[in-house]
Amino acid sequence: MRDVAYIALGSNLGDRAHHLARARDAIAELPASRVVAESSIEETQPLGWLEQPMYLNQMVALETSLTPRQLLDRLQAIEQREGRTRHERWESRTLDLDIVCFDEQTASDPDLEIPHPGLADRAFWQRELAELRREAKR
Predict the structure, then answer these.
(1) I need a labelling partner for 72 at 20 to 30 A (CA). Which of 4, 16, 64, 78 fits?
(2) CATH number of the domain residue 96 falls in
(3) Known catalytic residue: 138?
């Protein structure tokens, strides 16, 4: 089954734009998938309570046959290749890749909730998602 996944990209360490570019390239290389749209890149305040640098954020629309779990595993491998470590929630990161939602599929596992539970609280995700959906209608 082919579906469209919306993936949020974020970075607030190192060369943020470079990390996003490498992530876009890696996502474009995923099997059984193709990037169909990219949102604008925007700078946003960090989430959480830790003092840290500003983020660059973007979202891509990915038409894919990968299941949500397969996609998550591949996205986490991309994060690791870009130097992502996981120690503390909300900490700064070279790269953060989140599955925000799919057009059709949902998931409810302890480590994979689709739509992402943060969607309602992140105005920048809502803007980026709306931008991608407008592009898809063209």
Answers:
(1) 16
(2) 3.30.70.560
(3) no
